[in-house]
Amino acid sequence: MSNQVIGYIVVFGVFIAFMYIAYATRAKRADDFYVAGRRIKPFWNGMAVAADWMSAASFISMAGAIAALGYDGLAYIMGWTGGYVVLALVLAPYLRKFGKYTAPDFIGDRYESQVARAVAIICAIVISFTYCVAQVAGAGIIMGRLMGLPMKVAIAIGVIIVIASTVMGGMKSITWTQCAQYIVLIIGYLIPVTALCIKFYGHPLPQLAYGDILQKIVAKEKELNITPLYIEPFTKMSMADMWVLTLVLMIGTAGLPHIMMRFFTTPLVRDARYSAGWALVFIGALYITAPAYAAFQKYVVLHDVVGKPISQLPEWVSAWGKVGLLKIKDAIELGGNGDGILQFKELDLHRDIVVLSMPEIAQLPYIVSALVAAGGLAAAISTADGLLMVIAAAISHDLYYKMINPNASENTRVILGKSLIGFFAIIAGIVAAGNIGFIVQIVAWAFSLAAASFFPAIVMGVFDKRTNTYGAVIGMIGGLLITIFYILGVKFGWPVKISPIAGIKDQGAGLFGMAFNFLSCIIISRLTPPPSEKIMDLVDHLRYPKKLTDAHD
């Protein structure tokens, strides 16, 4: 049986299993479609949250970012993990206690404003769509390597898979397929690096080998005269840029609408906090492994690839070269020296292949490569599912049902939601085919947008009863526009070229929008009439931990 056939059997076999779970748990009512009937227990919700959040960026691109950036790449680990602490302590139980379906639903009711709801809908769509583009790109990379197809064709296939797995049954089916997807993705992620650790060290704990492999990397870099060294700080980012990126990723995590939406599915208010705790446990299994993943791959590249005759490079180098994600620039016209020996600067290795190439690097059977591909596809699909649900819910529930047609039937809203899922998945595929950035970079933009728009409005809505519609609306609009303007100006030079302020690049753009948003909520709210007494009393009620009980569910 050929390797390609094995790959098809494993990946599509896993995908068919996901589809069966989605069909068996399909939603028939609106509350099943939007919030899984509020019947998901903390353990399973935590697992679903982990799968929902550990996207293609976590599975495919994070280890690659650390491998490329070295010390500076740890900003992604610290920011994304720390964000869940903020989420568990600051937002999750209060959002669940409020008892709505979506983040725009919370904002619309908390600020007693259809304008605030409309602005929140726009924010939810922009954030979720940006994030979804990265997931579709990740699915395309996996399908391209698995099938040997051009990137655009592979992305089209990825879009079809995402649509098929999402429209079946809304949040109810997504929850249970995400639990299955977590199991697949974590097994697929851990097997290759564990095997390589056993090969090098004789034990299956790459996390414990991390310190030693770093020393070997530094020794090899010194031998090859490579500078700066992998462990040197602030070589790819300035200190300000790294810490701002960490902060933005942390705040953005707590402000992501598709993650907030998961905490509306628990039976009780206290279960929302427990769900966040379980999510940290499940996420930790991958996140404490990612730095070791990057280090093992870095060492193998330095030891087995750099300094070797190009005609004698490992087979995996050629295989990934055919997909276009690894390039050798030894030729003089490409900037190399043309001596037939691969120098470090002559190797252009796309950071998004670090994890996917590990089974071949570790010389494992092809079925492991297929399992890793299935895990990466599960990560991309699980997050894309949640993101598309946010978009569908924002338009079909928050816009159409809450603002345009309050008499719309459940069936009409569900059909509209499913149609929107298909439409936005296709648009995301078209944008992803434009190759606008690395997966982790695109995801960081989404986190910046969330940090600048949702997070301040929701935090102030929970903890400051004086924050009113004017402050929240102006804050969200200004925060979102400032962040978009900074990203476009720094990254693409459009509509005007912007030089990074204090060394803060496009991925940390959310800092400026977030600052504006918080100031708007505080200052403008104090200069305009206060919210109604009913809302101020409700905010007081939300903040009493002892009252987070079943009685208010």
Q: In whole angstroms, how far apart are the ends?
A: 55 Å
- The outline comes out as globular
Q: How many strands? A: 2
Could you tell me the mean pLDDT? 87
Computed CA radius of gyration, to the nearest angstrom: 23 Å
* Main sheet summary: 2 strands, antiparallel
Given as residue ranges, the uncertain stretches (5+ residues, pLDDT < 50) are 547-553
Residue share in β-strands? under 5%
Structure annotation, total helices: 22
H and E order: HHHHHHHHHHHHHHHEEHHHHHHH
Main sheet: which strands, in order across? 1-2
The amount of helix comes to: over 70%
The SS-based structural class is mainly alpha
Assembly of the depicted chains? single chain
Structural features, described:
By secondary structure, this protein is mainly alpha-helical. Helices cover 72% and strands 1% of the residues. The protein has 22 helices and 2 strands. The chain has helices at 3-24, 30-35, 42-53, 56-69, 74-98, 103-110, 114-147, 151-166, 170-201, 206-223, 239-254, 257-262, 269-287, 290-304, 315-323, 354-361, 366-404, 410-432, 439-463, 469-492, 510-527, 533-542; strands spanning 326-328, 347-349. A two-stranded antiparallel ribbon has the order 1-2. Helix 1 runs parallel beside helix 17 (366-404). It is globular, with a radius of gyration of 23 Å.
